[in-house]
Amino acid sequence: MKKSIQVLAAALVLVLISAFTLSEGYKIGDVAEDFSLKNIDGNMVSLADYEYAKGFIVTFTCNTCPYAVQYEDRIIALNNKYEDKGYPVIAIMPNNTAVKPGDDLDAMKERAESKGFTFPYLIDAEQTVYPKFGATKTPHIFVLQKTDAGNVVKYIGAIDDNYKDESAVTTKYVEDAVDALLAGKDVPLKETKAIGCTIKV
């Protein structure tokens, strides 16, 4: 009986450690580390490659999540609107492809071509980048502002307030954040709850 309790207690500790680890990640005001991830064209991409950028719309997304698919056109629209203004979209696929083979690099290439992605679509193959950000969903958005101190996290969360119907959106969280930064103002709403599928590990 005593041994069973000890085993149960040890298992509980592991669950709590795991939950704590998953909840960790960048907070508003933190400086995000740069990364180097493989793009669908085979090239490695880092934030440092974008010398012209004023910041970034880092989007954790994938092929297989219906929420992510629902938001694809809006992610494309964000890049079309803000890339030339200095805030390009950087899309990262964080899932374990052994669990989700529909998210492997070949499938990513096919999806990007069929949708006409105009932004890099990177694979976090070793699953080392998304935990640093604290991403838990697809999609999960992080707006970064380039400063002398580095790329500072200014917004974390959802793209907007209605994943089901773009025509019913009343608040565009990411657009509001980027527009504020471009105007030299404070982001009005810095965090929202990301709505999507859990990242597969």
Task: Tell me what the structure shows.
There is one protein chain. The chain starts with a helix and ends with a strand. The N terminus is likely disordered. It has a single domain, classed as Glutaredoxin (3-Layer(aba) Sandwich). Helix 2 links the parallel strand 4 and strand 5. With 201 residues, the protein is of the alpha+beta class.
How many individual helices?
A: 5
Radius of gyration: 18 Å
Strand residue percentage: 15-25%
CATH superfamily: Glutaredoxin
Shape: globular
Share of residues in helices: 25-40%
Distance between the termini: 33 Å
Count of beta strands: 10
Strand arrangement in the largest pleated sheet: 1-9-8-4-5-6-2-3
CATH topology: Glutaredoxin
Low-confidence runs of at least 5 consecutive residues: 1-23
CATH level 1 name? Alpha Beta
- Number of self-contained structural domains: 1
